[in-house]
Design a protein that fits this description.
Length: about 290
Amino acid sequence: MTISPELASRLRAAGLDPAAVESVASAALAEDLAGGVDVTSEATVAATQVSTGDFVARGSGVVAGLPVAEAVMALLGGECTPMTGDGTRVQAGDRLLVVTGPTRALLTGERTALNLLCHLSGVATVTRQWVDAVAGTAAVVRDTRKTTPGLRALEKYAVRCGGGTNHRMSLSDAALVKDNHVVAAGGTAAAFAAVRAMWPGLPVEVEVDSLEQLDAALDAGADLVLLDNMAADLLREAVARTAGRARLEASGGLRLADARTVALTGVDFVSVGALTHSAPVLDIGLDLREAR
């Protein structure tokens, strides 16, 4: 089985590659089956039985990954009807997605679909918490490359569903001169100049952890400066020193409780690795309600 052209179109509209989503879904199903069959479902469910089931939220949050769950079920012969859309706030008891298909297939794909849907919804939920925390300020919440290997596109999609924005998707999208690059190149100015010379069309961000390093980055001509692990008073001073010459990104060890304080310093971005690497899942279940 494969995903339908209609589902592929919706995935593309969401900024996702249908082939990549299908590949993730196929790999996850193959991992769960490990070359065999779902022995429990084969033993307890007739091959001819067909069921309808509901993906239901067990808690409140922001849903993300419904078309990904659909892709899992489609590969097993299930047909899905979304009851809401990604990026929507949901409450416990809300139906998110209805699926109909061979009962064995639904039970085989249940955990794989839920693993992806619960995780991506968890990312979207945490992101929305940060976005809400900085609402009314000029700061934008965005993610990092601290993503689960193989799931970056999906996790960054979930960040967008939560109202956040994406940092670079890969190492080739933009340059980020970090402390180790500075050491290897012999200084901030030298590292910046080397990147600019080789890749003149790419944005260049420079990571700093002191006001002196900030001055060096600004003098070098950095487009964007990452202020790493700076307290609020230093962030305010950094904003004042920069005076609009570059955009500023606060990052490093940020906590949700401090999000608004950081945003009010005047930085342009609040960058949070925890959106993807530490988000708890949103509890969602699949409930069969009809069988024939």
